[in-house]
Design goal:
about 210 residues, Transcription Regulator spoIIAA, three-stranded antiparallel beta sheet, globular
Length: about 210
């Protein structure tokens, strides 16, 4: 890819792609590469200065309402570490021109969650297939445990969860779906907590929601 952050325009909206898969250590911003991300968990999840400047310029110049897309969250308390800087840029763009940023979409945490902050919809999309957990288990059938060594860290959905997100004007319509847990195994059965570090509970579903901002 020419760059790990960019935008494209589609049917009157600007999709702004950002990359917080960066850790900040000893005054240096380092991109994710070959597993280096896992060596410095306390330094992970930063949006570097050049992306912050680019985002500010992009939002100032956009002729269209924007949807921001990133791997990690700009809303979560355990999300991007300099998320306050990111949200300040978003809020200032909306102060200058209301409706400049409508929505921020992220993944990474394997939860279905939505929160409205300063008239911006922050939407966390669930994993398509599973949740990864720190405490291992051996509850799947023996053939599964033998064939898939990482299964001990997971609970799995029976269907590939996804959402269809439709936007018209300032109205956001999310069409969700429901599934169930593979072999009936849930997080709480495995010895892991029911919720994640942000207190968000895992359900095998994507909520259907329709909201109008403003």
């Amino acid at each position: 890819m020419p760059k790990d952050y960019y935008y494209f325009d589609c049917k009157g909206y600007r999709m702004v792609i950002l990359n917080p898969n960066v850790y900040y250590l000893d005054g240096e911003y380092v991109n994710y590469s070959l597993g280096n991300y896992y060596k410095h968990p306390e330094a992970r999840d930063h949006l570097p200065p050049e992306q912050l400047s680019w985002l500010e310029k992009t939002l100032a110049e956009t002729p269209y309402p924007c949807i921001l897309i990133s791997h990690e969250s700009f809303e979560r308390p355990d999300g991007v570490q300099n998320r306050d800087q990111v949200r300040a840029i978003i809020d200032e763009a909306n102060r200058r021109k209301p409706g400049t940023v409508l929505m921020c979409i992220n993944g990474h945490y394997h939860r279905d969650y939505m929160r409205i902050l300063n008239n911006v919809c922050y939407y966390e999309i669930i994993s398509a297939s599973f949740d990864y957990m720190p405490v291992t288990h051996s509850l799947f059938t023996e053939d599964i445990m033998n064939k898939y060594p990482h299964a001990k860290h997971t609970v799995v959905f029976n269907d590939p969860l996804h959402a269809i997100v439709e936007i018209e004007g300032s109205t956001i319509n999310i069409k969700g779906m429901k599934s169930s847990m593979f072999q009936g195994i849930t997080r709480e059965m495995t010895g892991n907590t029911h919720a994640d570090s942000a207190g968000r509970v895992l359900y095998p579903e994507v909520q259907s929601v329709k909201i109008t901002l403003g």
